Amino acid sequence: MKVDSRIHGFCKFIIPTVLLLGVLIRCFAYFRNLSFWGDEACLALNVINKSYMELFKGLDYLQVAPPLFLVFSKALYQVINPQSVWVRDLCFRIIPFLSGLASIPCFYFLLKLMVKNNFSRIVGLIIFVFNTTTILYCAQFKQYSLELLVSILLIIIFYKVLFEQKYKWYYSLLVAVAPWFSLSSLFIAGSYFFITMFKNIKLLLKLCIPFLLSFTVFYFVYLKPVSAYNYEGMYNWWQNGYGFVSLVHPFRVAIRFGELFSFNKFIAEIIGVFILAVAACSVVPIKKDNFLRKSFTYLPIVLTFFASALKLYPIEARLIMFLFPLLVISISEYNLKYRKYILTLVCFISIITSIYYTIKPYKFYTSAREVVSYVENDFTKGDKIILDNAFHRYLYYIKDKKNIVIMNDGCGDFYTQSCNDKIEDLPKGSYYLVLKNNPGKMLTNKITVISEYNLHSTVIKFKK
To answer: How many separate helices (H) and strands (E) can be counted in the chain?
Structure first.
């Protein structure tokens, strides 16, 4: 009895502390307000330049995002009407930030539903709150934080329906509108519709009919035109970038799960193998009385990776972040040898990696806002700005877009002679060459370098 009371007292202290720290670390990430990187800038340019109706027809620069995420982001941008780029960045990131904050108490509520052991609840909460990817994407203008929140809400709804036999009228409404806010919700809803079909047909109809009506509209209004506009480009991008499950690369799954914790490929592979081993140990033994529960936890994960094997859905870490709550619950229920030591190690990995990558700027951070500010403060009439193939992040910040020369080939991650050839063909004048990486000695000697500025990105001012 004394041991139980001590554990209960410890929970009363540690859980509020973890929740508070989770909010604080996300606030730090958000209000630090790093400049936009490539995908953020691409998405923001679409939201700024396209009408509300155009946002339903497919985005430029190989971007895909849920339609109502785009609509509400544009509405916030227009209502707030930020006058500085600093405030504009914060404005675009409001929805991901609020979604990231809301996901913390929602996940804890889910933990209390699905996990009965106090130690496992603490472990699950720590892993979820102190996670590199969930923190990162609550401070970036991307939809993944919102998709995480929608995923948690759907899991809660279906858990209550399937295991507590509780149904509220608004459950059907929330399930029906979920795809408009989260494309990945289709994997969650599809998996649980399948389980509900064997559990309760009446409840299935209550949930499924509104969903099918909404999805039919969603398909013709958004999914079909977007697929026609972007599918080929996205498929080629992810196929070339090793984004799909493949039997030829058996460790790819481990790397993708490991990348939820670390951006270093080698470290991610080690963590991924360890995390998946712990999660796999929670699958067995499967008994008759817990088969439904195991199916509930693992079926969305299996369905997602099956779709990826069919080249229908890439499995980059950010794209499977919506599965993270189920992975965390699986890990927290590890109950084999050295349980407390293994789970304590997982918590330690989560805390260390999340703090490290929150303090250290993300690998794609290239200080675009600061670099453009430097150029514009030094800019004189007649100057031109040359951008490399990472031009979107700089284009987003440049006020006067008439003075831009985009060299999309040969001036990217690996600076080539092709870029030098294009520079040598430019008319006489003064130029700012803005690059994601420093070309070093490869820069052509047929120009006169006036100055050089480095802050992650490189700015070289020269004359011809």
So the answer is: 20, 5
Distances in Å between the Cα of 342 and the Cα atoms of 68, 218, 249, 345 are: 41, 44, 27, 5
Q: Considering the chain, what percentage of its residues have pLDDT values greater than 70?
A: 95
Q: Supply 27's token pair.
A: 């606030």
Taking the whole predicted model, whether its pTM rises above 0.90 is answered as yes
Q: Which residue has the tokens 């690059």?
A: 435
Give the pair of three-digit tokens for residue 65: 């995002």
Paired sense of beta strands 457-463 and 430-435, if any: antiparallel
Residue the block writes with tokens 């790819």? 252
- Tell me the sheet residues that pair with 452: 460
DSSP string, 46-106: HHHHS-TTGGGS--STT----HHHHHHHHHHHHHH--SSHHHHHHHHTHHHHHHHHHHHHH
Task: Answer yes or no: are the C-beta atoms of 182 and 304 closer than 8 Å.
Answer: no
Q: List, in order, residues 6 or more apart from 219 with CB less than 8 Å away.
A: none
Q: Is the peptide bond before 285 cis (omega within 30 degrees of 0)?
A: yes
The answer to whether 35 and 369 have CB atoms below 8 angstroms apart is yes
Residue located via tokens 């927290």: 332
Residue type, 327: L
Plot region of 256 (φ>0 → left; ψ -120 to 50 → alpha; else → beta)? alpha
Phi, psi for 320 (deg, rounded to 5): -110, 15
Strand, helix or coil for residue 410: coil
Q: How far apart (Å, rounded) are the C-alpha atoms in residues 22 and 213?
A: 38
What is the arrangement of strands in the sheet containing 384-387, beginning at the earlier edge strand?
404-406, 384-387, 430-435, 457-463, 448-455
Token pair for 324: 């993270």
Pairing state between β 457-463 and 448-455: antiparallel
- Residue 102 to residue 149: CA distance in whole angstroms: 7
Radius of gyration (Cα) for the chain, nearest Å? 24
Considering only CA atoms, which of 275, 334, 323, 328 is closest in space to residue 299?
323
As given in the structure block, the two tokens for residue 84 are: 């500085």
Lowest mean pLDDT among 32-41, 141-150, 174-183, 239-248: 239-248
Only one residue has tokens 């399948």, namely 194
Cα separation, 190 vs 300, in Å, equals: 8
The C-alpha atoms of residue 419 and residue 69 are separated, in whole angstroms, by 38
CA–CA separation, 325 and 124 (whole Å)? 9
Tell me how far apart the alpha carbons of residues 265 and 263 are, in angstroms, rounded to a whole number.
Answer: 6
**Beta-carbon contacts of residue 228 (< 8 Å; ≥ 6 apart):** 58
DSSP 294-332: HHHHHHHHHHHHHHHHTTSS---GGGGGGGHHHHHHHHH
Kindly report, residue by residue over 354-386, the tens digit of the pLDDT.
Answer: 999 998 876 567 789 999 999 999 988 889 999
